[in-house]
Amino acid sequence: QSETSLGNRLPEDLNFLNTPPKKTVRFGGTVANTLAKLQKGDTSDYELIKHQLSDPDIKASVVFNRYFNVSTLKIVLSRPLPWLGRSQAVVEEYLAFLSNLVSAQTVYLRACLRMVITNFAPKRIRIQEGNVDISDSDDEDENLPRTFDHCHQALQLITRYVPSTSRFLMPILSDKFPFVQKSSRTLECYVHNLLRVSVYIPDLRRDIIELIISKMLTLDVSAPRSEIEEVESGAQQDANGASQDDCLFDMDEEEDSPLDSSRPDGAVMVHPVAERLDTMMTVLLAYIKDICHVNGSLDIEKTKALYKDLVSVFDKVVLPTHASCHVQYYMFYLCSFRLGLAEAFLDHLWKMFHAPNQPPVLRQAAAGYMGSFMARAKFLPVSTVKACLDLLVPWLHLYINSQDSGSKAFCDVNLHGSFYTACQAVFYTLIFRHNAILEGNMKKGLAYLQGLNLERIVMCQLNPLRVCLPAVTNMFAAITRKYQLVFCYTIIERNNRNLLPVVSNSTGGNSVSTNTNPLDTFFPFDPYLLKSSGKLIEPIYQVWEEPSDCMIDVPKKKVRKGSMEEEDDFLHGGTPHGDSGVGMTPGSYDSHLHSPRSVGSPPVSFLQRPF
């Protein structure tokens, strides 16, 4: 009987003998003593703990439940353990541990938030030889999406246990925002994760968008349009020359173009600041599209809510910023979703311009945005354009009525800046939209334009043609002469005589006053130069089409064939554009962009390349 019993148990004993011993954790001392040494600068024992905990065979619950407690985690949070790259069991135990910590001791809330937010951007990988960095690049770990998922899972758990988390989170998000000179990859990942936070903490959405757009404006104003055009044009010429050389001398060797190496579609900007801005704009526009659309259809309520947040940020940080070239296009893109959004935006700009209590600089900026938006928005019907003109033109006549008989009825941009900006907005709109107004019913269209009484505006004592940009003035004069609306050339010639250079002065010295434009203005929706995000703007953007039947005496600059400036802008002689421009990447918009929406496992395919 004993032999039978022994025989029955033998296979089990053999299994026992063949089973490897269970792994245990030996710290060489208590965790409290290890952390005490760490506070004094001795990191040896702590590094040993981290190394041992990285072993995937160690049971996570034993480690966290037995060896760590609330009193020791503060230091652990400042030097986080490698929990993100571990198994799902370790991650779950660590998340449970964080939940217990913040619910029991909210004093550690900020430390927990900092620990999580630090992982919103990829780590830097440095390879050294002899204390010299031979490689310094972003971590291209393919598990980054999983890492980001766990970070957001931790943040949602903290928010669930501490409802006041949002009060403490925003300063940390701002503080941890990467420096704008960091790589496009780092900025892309961080902006992606910030926007994902706004999905499950909606109270922070406006603040998060304001933070992102403020950082983007810093990049935008530091990369002037002329500088981007010059760099991109030079790079394109160099690439063309290099390709010719390859064909002549290296016919058997295939090399990737430097312009096609960073993105799948090759739409990379050579200008480094423009490349970073392009990356961030692509993420932001994809986010706007996904928030507003559910299953491919526009969700009106969600779109309205997002519109309010975006307009608020526009008023606060975009409108007061002079010479931004691209960031403001997020409103242009949003308004293309539905005509009601475009009309609401124009009405908002009109109310800001019309409000006398607004600072003059903001009123003038609002008028500039109105004119540029009406001229460039391809999705805007002519009825909406006429409705806006019916607001601006009567305002101009009322302004003339109030000034013509007064002591200030003379040309002075400081006194009448809002008037001149509104005049330029009207002239600029008519330059782009007169064909749309006249087509279909020429007689009715001409009657409408005659009813605007443009001649009175042009002939008034305030003399707007002297202040508006020369290119706008000359094109407006040519169009109005063709349709016999206004004859501007007599006034233009008189203004030119009054602005001739003065060679001598009363003091006997020599001086020259150049023919400069006293109205320092800009057109916020001038051609969009960023290549990748520009694919979303191109289908909804009205380019300039040169009228073939208008004789316009404006000196033309020689422009490289195929450039955006050659196709688009008539402002060659009047605005400080570069000698050559850069066309947007050809091809229609192919929608493969997705922004973070789902809380559990968000899509990351909208990013330009896989994590």
TrEMBL record:
Coiled coil: none
Example of a GO biological process term: transcription initiation at RNA polymerase I promoter
GO CC list: nucleus
Chain segments carrying region Disordered: 563-611
One Gene Ontology term of the molecular function aspect: RNA polymerase I core binding
Source domain of life: Eukaryota
Pfam families linked: RRN3
Family named by the database record: Belongs to the RRN3 family.
Protein name, UniProt field: RRN3 homolog, RNA polymerase I transcription factor
Phylogenetic classification of the source organism: Eukaryota, Metazoa, Chordata, Craniata, Vertebrata
